[in-house]
């Protein structure tokens, strides 16, 4: 009877303990989805309730363990039939229930502690973020100035690159013009070298024309003289 009474109490306590863990997680999630200015709701009270219920369940588990030990001593004592199957079955059933309750308690407790530790870590991270946001307002002006200066430097670099590109293009154009001028100069030199030969040829042609004119004039004069002499004689 004492074992059944403790088992019933443990069953009710474990159900409430599991609901506490679920409500703790749901409350934390609801606060996380709400605004950052929402105060913590029943955080410390839930922690105190968890500690109280954990102590009570551990005490009940201890009492149930003691009763199971007493039942085991009774079944092993003198005067009790060693082959009483009903007693052994009852003892084994109570041991299984105790084992199940113990396993469920440790599992629920571990889940609760894991959730609380995670929420504490997330809460510290959120506090760090909020403190950073609140403290970053002082450095906003300096950061803005740094960004503007960085933008100015980038603009200056871009202008310098454009100027260098224009200079390189001008250099290439001047190089090409220099090549063209060199080719023109070489052609002019070639023509200038050819002019003396042309001049000499023209002079020779003029000399030959002048000689031919003199010869033709001499022939005409001789023929005229001969005709006059023939006419007067």
UniProtKB/TrEMBL annotation:
Residues 24-44 are annotated as: Disordered. Coiled coil: none annotated. One of its GO terms (cellular component) is SNARE complex. It is found in: Golgi apparatus membrane. It is a single-pass type IV membrane protein. Keywords: Golgi apparatus, Membrane, Protein transport, Receptor, Transmembrane, Transmembrane helix, Transport. GO terms for molecular function: SNAP receptor activity. The chain crosses the membrane at residues 214-232. Signal peptide: none annotated. InterPro entries: Golgi_SNAP_su1. GO terms for biological process: endoplasmic reticulum to Golgi vesicle-mediated transport; inter-Golgi cisterna vesicle-mediated transport; protein transport; vesicle fusion. CDD domains: SNARE_GS28. Involved in transport from the ER to the Golgi apparatus as well as in intra-Golgi transport. It belongs to a super-family of proteins called t-SNAREs or soluble NSF (N-ethylmaleimide-sensitive factor) attachment protein receptor. May play a protective role against hydrogen peroxide induced cytotoxicity under glutathione depleted conditions in neuronal cells by regulating the intracellular ROS levels via inhibition of p38 MAPK (MAPK11, MAPK12, MAPK13 and MAPK14). Participates in docking and fusion stage of ER to cis-Golgi transport. Belongs to the GOSR1 family. This is Golgi SNAP receptor complex member 1. It comes from Dryobates pubescens.
């Amino acid at each position: 009877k004492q074992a059944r009474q403790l088992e019933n109490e443990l069953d009710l306590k474990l159900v409430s303990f599991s609901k506490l863990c679920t409500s703790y997680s749901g409350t934390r999630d609801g606060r996380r989805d709400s605004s950052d200015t929402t105060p913590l709701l029943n955080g410390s009270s839930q922690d105190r309730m968890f500690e109280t219920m954990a102590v009570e369940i551990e005490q009940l588990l201890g009492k149930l363990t003691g009763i199971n030990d007493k039942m085991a001593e009774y079944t092993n004592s003198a005067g009790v039939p060693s082959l009483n199957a009903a007693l052994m079955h009852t003892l084994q059933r109570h041991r299984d229930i105790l084992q199940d309750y113990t396993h469920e308690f440790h599992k629920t407790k571990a889940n609760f502690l894991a959730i609380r530790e995670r929420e504490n870590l997330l809460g510290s991270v959120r506090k760090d973020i909020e403190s950073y946001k609140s403290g970053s307002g002082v450095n906003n002006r300096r950061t803005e100035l740094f960004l503007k200066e960085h933008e100015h430097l980038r603009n200056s670099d871009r202008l310098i690159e454009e100027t260098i590109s224009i200079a390189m293009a001008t250099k290439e154009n001047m190089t090409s013009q220099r090549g063209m001028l060199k080719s023109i100069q070489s052609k002019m030199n070639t023509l200038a070298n050819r002019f003396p030969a042309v001049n000499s040829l023209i002079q020779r042609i003029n000399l030959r024309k002048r000689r031919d004119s003199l010869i033709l004039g001499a022939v005409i004069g001789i023929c005229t003289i001969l005709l006059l002499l023939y006419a007067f004689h």
